[in-house]
């Protein structure tokens, strides 16, 4: 297509001139600065509050923000056109809590320490992208489909180079090694960009989070004091995605990849090695040695014929806290070290390094009756003597063994893997696409419709007795509970995360009484679409304990234990309420470091004062250092 030259820019410039003039008029007339009326509205329909999830201040706003923001902006303008001019509030704050800013600042420090100032980086290395295999095994429904929980993968970059891409010079970038500088630099630019965009916002109500803003800090401390008093916050050990480098749980906001990935529970089946032990392991005798294999299907252990190990990659033997020796991959051992399975938390006492690893966890159980992959491999070993000889597998290790019927699946019978193998005419374990199809056919149907044929749970559905079988194996010391991340998770500090059993403060969202109150509240909300309501119900049903504390980053300290910070999502649940009073406290500043219209100091905002502000039945607190008329404008 031929290039079309623009004849001139007069029309564009003229429109931009009109735009600037109107925006200057809005600013001059303070059109969007709305105060609550002193008399209550006659109807809820007379007022309108709009909230945009406050953006995180580790960079400039971008086109994605604009797209999402356009929906709020449309709604606000529409409500104003309906005549609600004096009752439409659209505030806009900025989120700084959490790990990302601190992690980026610390990266810049490390890069200057390692590579000087300005840094001289080595040549870029290729980045290996790891794709997880399709997973058809049913897992925890709480970690099901999530609209924004797709793991992100990006090429590696130095933080300094990222800052360069924002148009910053070296001398300016150096200042960002101080985390507080991010809070000074980006919020004003965001306001400038949003103002130029022309959004209908009351900028008196803007603020930043963290203890850099003592007013918002006081508000969040009040929230958590009251939650703890109501026994909504508890302390204990929980399995959590954990960054070893950062020394703390790694939540979604703290990850460079793996957003939405949670801990996945496995049953770690222990398969005892018979004596005499091989030479490398004789020194541990008489301690028992186990090959350990993680499985999502403990009920199939009734039909295990063998286990698989691969011949080419190294794995290790290490001692556990129970004076047993486990053999698995180094990666799996690293996870176990943070789950109370080793003598010293975070430390793996390696005894020997050995050859042989299969799949992901190093040792994999084989159940050819119900696993198409296992049956295909067993058939290949039986058919092909050279294949057996290649790996030193003798006839007596393979030929006598046949699949063992352990469960019945309607449509596939008592030997589902065999049925599907023959139905799809699978030729060998190299028929990857057919085997994946077979796996999808068998596993889901087996979980939901399978009936046990053996054991104490004979005649019962698999989905009803899986936990009971798991408990039996653990009680008999034939297995233990083990967790891994569902997929690879990389922290913003650059290390691969593990699952750790961590001491944490957590909010008990699963408390039945509280959940019932939330469900009742949902009934009174107009969600405008039934699917939206169903999504709310689904979220309320799977939400249980949520870790609300961390030890690294920026934020508000837990009032009763200041060695912990309140994590970045947990200080963002009721900030909409803060908007209603922010213009009276912030003094037209992000940090509240300028005098406000009421002359209130942050340290005067005790929990009792916040109660009086937000709780209808709360009394004016005794010994309050703030005048009653400042807290209750109706009495002025």
From TrEMBL:
InterPro entries: aa-tRNA-synth_Ia, Leu-tRNA-synth_Ia_arc/euk, Rossmann-like_a/b/a_fold, Val/Leu/Ile-tRNA-synth_edit. The keyword Cell membrane does not apply. Pfam families: tRNA-synt_1. Keywords: Aminoacyl-tRNA synthetase, ATP-binding, Ligase, Nucleotide-binding, Protein biosynthesis. Its EC number is 6.1.1.4. GO terms for molecular function: aminoacyl-tRNA deacylase activity; ATP binding; leucine-tRNA ligase activity. It comes from the Eukaryota. Residues 22-107, 182-559 form the Aminoacyl-tRNA synthetase class Ia domain. It is an enzyme of class 6 (ligase). The keyword Nucleotidyltransferase does not apply. One of its GO terms (biological process) is leucyl-tRNA aminoacylation. PANTHER family: LEUCINE--TRNA LIGASE, CYTOPLASMIC, LEUCYL-TRNA SYNTHETASE. Belongs to the class-I aminoacyl-tRNA synthetase family. This is leucine--tRNA ligase.
């Amino acid at each position: 297509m031929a290039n079309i030259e623009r004849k001139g820019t007069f029309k564009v410039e003229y429109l931009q001139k009109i735009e600037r003039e109107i925006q200057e008029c809005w600013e001059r007339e303070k059109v969007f600065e709305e105060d609550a009326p002193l008399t209550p509205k006659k109807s809820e329909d007379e007022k309108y509050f709009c909230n945009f999830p406050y953006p995180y201040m580790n960079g400039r706003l971008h086109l994605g923000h604009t797209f999402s923001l356009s929906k709020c902006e449309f709604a606000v303008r529409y409500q104003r056109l309906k005549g609600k001019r004096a009752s439409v509030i659209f505030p806009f704050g900025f989120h700084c809590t959490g790990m990302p800013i601190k992690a980026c600042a610390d990266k810049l420090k490390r890069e200057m320490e390692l590579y000087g100032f300005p840094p001289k980086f080595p040549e870029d290395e290729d980045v290996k992208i790891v794709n997880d295999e399709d997973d058809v095994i049913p897992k925890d429904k709480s970690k099901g489909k999530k609209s924004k929980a797709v793991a992100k993968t990006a090429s590696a970059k130095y933080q300094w180079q990222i800052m360069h891409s924002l148009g910053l010079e070296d001398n300016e970038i150096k200042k960002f090694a101080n985390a507080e500088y991010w809070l000074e630099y980006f919020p004003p630019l965001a306001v400038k960009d949003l103002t130029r965009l022309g959004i209908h916002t009351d900028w008196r109500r803007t603020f930043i989070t963290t203890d850099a803003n003592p007013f918002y800090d006081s508000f969040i401390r009040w929230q958590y004091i009251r939650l703890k008093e109501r026994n909504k916050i508890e302390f204990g050990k929980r399995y959590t995605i954990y960054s070893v480098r950062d020394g703390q749980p790694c939540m979604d906001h703290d990850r460079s990849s793996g957003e939405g990935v949670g801990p996945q529970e496995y049953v770690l089946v222990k398969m005892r090695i018979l004596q005499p032990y091989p030479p490398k392991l004789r020194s541990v005798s008489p301690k028992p040695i186990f090959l350990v294999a993680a499985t999502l299907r403990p009920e199939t252990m009734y039909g295990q014929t063998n286990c698989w190990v691969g011949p080419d990659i190294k794995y290790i033997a290490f001692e556990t806290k129970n004076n047993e020796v486990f053999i698995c991959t180094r990666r799996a051992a690293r996870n176990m070290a943070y789950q109370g399975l080793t003598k010293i938390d975070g430390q793996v006492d390696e005894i020997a390094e050995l050859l042989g690893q299969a799949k992901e966890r190093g040792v994999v159980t084989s159940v050819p009756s119900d696993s198409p992959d296992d049956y295909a491999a067993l058939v290949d070993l039986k058919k092909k003597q050279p294949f057996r000889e290649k790996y030193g597998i003798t006839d007596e290790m393979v030929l006598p063994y046949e699949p063992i019927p352990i469960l019945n699946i309607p449509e596939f019978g008592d030997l589902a893997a065999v049925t599907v193998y023959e139905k799809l005419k699978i030729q060998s374990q190299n028929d990857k696409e057919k085997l994946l199809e077979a796996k999808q056919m068998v596993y889901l149907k087996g979980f939901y419709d399978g009936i046990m044929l053996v054991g104490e749970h004979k005649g019962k559905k698999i989905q009803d007795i899986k936990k009971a079988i798991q408990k039996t194996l653990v009680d008999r010391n034939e297995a233990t509970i083990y967790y891994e991340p569902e997929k690879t998770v990389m922290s913003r500090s650059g290390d691969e995360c593990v699952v750790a059993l961590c001491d944490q403060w957590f909010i008990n969202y699963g408390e039945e009484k509280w959940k019932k109150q939330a469900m009742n509240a949902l009934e009174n909300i107009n969600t405008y679409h039934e699917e939206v309501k169903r999504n709310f119900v689904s979220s309320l049903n799977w939400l249980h304990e949520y870790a609300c504390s961390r030890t690294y980053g920026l934020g508000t300290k837990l009032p009763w234990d200041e060695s912990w910070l309140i994590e970045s999502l947990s200080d963002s649940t009721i900030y909409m309420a803060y908007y209603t009073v922010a213009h009276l406290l912030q003094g037209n500043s992000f940090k509240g470091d300028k005098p406000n219209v009421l002359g209130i100091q942050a340290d005067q905002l005790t929990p009792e004062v916040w109660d009086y502000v937000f709780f209808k039945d709360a009394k004016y607190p005794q010994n309050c250092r703030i005048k009653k008329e400042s807290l209750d404008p109706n009495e002025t």
